[in-house]
Structures are given as structure tokens and as C-alpha cells.
Amino acid sequence: MKSGKYSCNTRSETLEWITAIIDFLKPFSFLINAHVVNFFKDKQWEAVDEDWMSCLRNEKLENILLIPSGTVQDHWPASLKDFVHTLRSLSFPREQADLQTVLSDVNVAPLSTVLSQGMNLKKKHEVEVLSSVVSSVVNSVGESTVVDVGSGQGYLAQVLSFQYKHSVVAIDSSSHHGNVTDARAARIRKHFASQMRKSGSGNKCPDAPTTITCRVLSTEMLKSLTNVPLEENDLDLDAAALNEGPKRSCSLVLAGLHACGDLSVTMLRTFMECEEVKAVVSIGCCYNLLSEKTSESSCYKCGFPMSAGLKSLGFSLGKNARDLACQSAERWSSLGEDAGLQNFELHSFRAAFQMVLSKHYPEVLATSPSIGRQGKAFRRQKQRKALETPSKLETSRKDIDKKSTTHTSSSFEKFCLSAFSRLNLEHPQDLDLTATWNEANAFTELIGPYWSIRAALGPVLETLILLDRLMFLQEQGDSLEVSMLPIFDPTLSPRNVAIIAKRL
Ligand SMILES: C[S@@+](CC[C@H](N)C(=O)[O-])C[C@H]1O[C@@H](n2cnc3c(N)ncnc32)[C@H](O)[C@@H]1O
């Protein structure tokens, strides 16, 4: 487990890596904590090194989009190149690991048509790889029931049941997901049963996963849901529902494919607190949903930080940093010029609209209004239009900007109209939106470079969150085997790092 000069094979190495990240990030807290809707209003670009911004404002869009992946251009200022390279060296590497070499007994087998029905390419890849990893972990710790935590529509759970023949419990907070999982499993089981009848093998058809609908909010809840004996103070859950279904082994392996926010953390804590849980395989996501202790709140067992080492450093991320940790370098580099341009234009519109609110609706601005969904709808609408009108990929950002000034001004007006309606504000007829747009437009070419430099911090922030989880496990001593591995192809599934821990 290594990135350049940093590695995380031991607790002290992990702590060293974490400390290097924190030291590096300190001078960039202004960038991390920036709320980009205030880009024009607060002239946010002025806080960034002037040489960086004047160089990047003329840079080709395709090169701007590559900054989060660590790609620099020769003519850039040395300090900018250094910034990008250092971020890269502090980020946990994402190239897919050669699983056969690092894990014993992993054999990534293709999914049959019936099992992969309904999955897109990304999901199929994730489930194909993760099911083989989980199965190899189960085989190495001895017969266990797999608990798929945050199971969604049960894709992973069904492959583990029907292809790998493990006993599986699928837990999700959404009853709709539970129903879809049951219905899908019934269809798959019918198919397998008929195949077995035809082959005359006499083998028993594997059981479908047992589904449980519950919002898991603590280790106590997860422990009780998995039928582990409860402590006196544990929560009283519907035991009748939990005892239904096929007989389960009392040894458990917890698996989570993109278990959101605190759910991944709860899995790791349950593994630590519960002897019956022999192993855990966790791939997290939605770091924006992590709970975090702030100066105002006391947060018992927060999602971040988990490790004693990081707690002792007194470092906190904050909401904007947690949001930023969700940015993925692969997503940026694969965005393409049209989508990239639309993205930056949308950010410009939102930031210019903030100027409108600041001037004319200061009382609305004070409530931190969100027009997020409207923004997404607007982007989709623009993407549809872009598909209808093919653009010249070779065109430089400057040329595009010049040509489209009038067009963007009217698009900005449309954006404002839908934003007003989203905020239930009347649109005053006397507002000169073109004047506000012209005021902002002089700086719109800075928003892409600014966002891109900011997004480049995302992989390092995600690394910090992952290293904290890893160190939490390493702090428990030598009784565990712990590893952190990028198991998916990052171009298909950028949130690809699995934390795998087993009791020895
Ligand atoms: C990102 S989805 C992943 C679904 C599935 N593992 C997959 O990859 O297809 C996260 C799932 O976790 C569920 N979830 C989120 N928080 C939860 C909680 N606290 N307890 C149980 N399920 C939760 C959501 O309903 C959602 O289905």
C-alpha cells in the first residue's frame, strides 16, 4: 500500500502520510472552504497565486480538466507544477490492483446474463469484481454469512447467493429496494431451479438473500440485525422479522458496495466490536454525508475522524472539504470539452445569480438558498441542446467564450428566471440581468481554472478519510490483517478503494 514516498503498511507509516497531508493542506484552507457560488461576489480568484491564474486563464480547456489527474504543462509556473505533483504524490493511487497477486484465491468470473440483468456497465464491473473478492475473503475465514450493508437493489447479494452459494443477508434502509431485491431474487432463483431440474444434478438451488429493511444508524443496530447476541443496553429491534428466512452461520462477513457516509464507518466499528464478524470489505462513498465533530456539536462516534491518531491531531474537515472529497480526478479527465464547458458555465451562472441575490435580495441570500436541482435540470437541458448542435472540439476556450457572449447572456437570463421560480421569488421586471452578467463575464474564464485547482484537492481529501479508516483498524493491534486496495477500474468506477480486514 504505497504512493511514491508514502506508504501505509503500518500504523506509524499511515500516521506519517496523514500528517504530510494535513501539513500540505493547511495553506489551502481558503480554497477548500470556498463556497464557489460566491466566486464573483467575493472575487475568490484573488486569493490564488496571481501567476497561476493568469497562466491558466488562457489554458486550453482539455488541459484544465486534467489538473485533478496530476497532469501539468511545461510552460506553467514551477510553483503550480509543484502543487499539482505534490497533490498527486499525497493521493492514494487508483490504478486497479492485480487482484490475483495481492489476494489469495480471487477468481473474477463473468456474471451470467440472468444475474447481470438490469446492471449498467459500471455496476456489472463492480459486482463482478467485488463478489469475487468477498467470496475469497469468506473462503479464507471459514463458513460465514455475508451481510451486504446498504445493499440497494441486491445486485451484490444475489451474485454472492446464486453464483458463489454463500448465505447472504441484504440490509437497506429503503423498503422499495428490499422489494425490488426480493422480486429480482425470485426471478433468478426460478431460472437456477429450472436449470438444475434440466441438468438432473439433484443439487439444491441456492437460497435467495434474506432482505431486511432498516436504517442502520449505529453498531448496536447492525449487531442486532445480524442476530449477534445483544448486550443489555442494545436496541430492541423486531426480533421476529430477523429470525425469519434460511438458517445463517453465526460467523459473519460484512460487505458494503458504496455504503454511504457513516454507514461504512459503522461497518468498520461493528467489525471491531463484534467477535462474530470475522471480516469486513468496505467501499465507501458520499463523504459529504459523514458526520463530524464540530466545535458546536458533540458527536458520539462520528464518521470522521475515527482513528485515535487523527483525533489526537485535532484536525477537522468541515462541510466543504467533505463535499470536495467526492470529486474524482477520473470524472474530470473523462468529462470532455462540451460537458466541461457546460459545467463551468453553469457555475458561472450560479455565481452571477448570487450577485443578483446579493444586490436585490440580501435577506434571501442570508438563508443560504439552494437551487441545486434547478441547476442540474438546467445542465441536462443544455446537454441535450449540445448533443443536437455538435461543437468543434479543437476550438480554444477563448474563441468559444467570444462567440457565445450574447448567447450566454440570454442563457443567464433563463437561468435566473428558473432560479427565481425555484426560490419562489417574483422576478422584478426592472432588474438589469444583462448588466450583472457583463460584470461577471469579465472573470468567467477564471472559474474553470479555479474549480479545477480546487477539485485537485479532492483525491487528497478522500485519501485522508480512507487513511483515517485504515489507521483505526491498524490501531487495534496485530490480531487483524488489514489492507487497502483499488479493486475496480477507476475509469469505470472511480470510487474504487476497498478496505479489507480479517481477524487472524
Ligand atoms: C450508493 S447506494 C449503493 C447500493 C448498492 N450497494 C449498490 O452498489 O448497488 C447506497 C445504499 O445504501 C442505502 N443506505 C444508506 N444509508 C443507509 C443506512 N443508514 N442503513 C441502511 N441502508 C442505507 C441506500 O438506501 C442505498 O440503497
TrEMBL record:
UniProt biased composition (Basic and acidic residues): 394-404
Pfam families registered for this protein in UniProt: Methyltransf_32
Start and end residues of each stretch annotated as Disordered: 372-405
Name of the protein: Methyltransferase domain-containing protein
Residues annotated as domain Methyltransferase: 122-292
Xref: SUPFAM superfamilies: S-adenosyl-L-methionine-dependent methyltransferases
Database matches in InterPro entries: Methyltranfer_dom, METTL25, SAM-dependent_MTases_sf
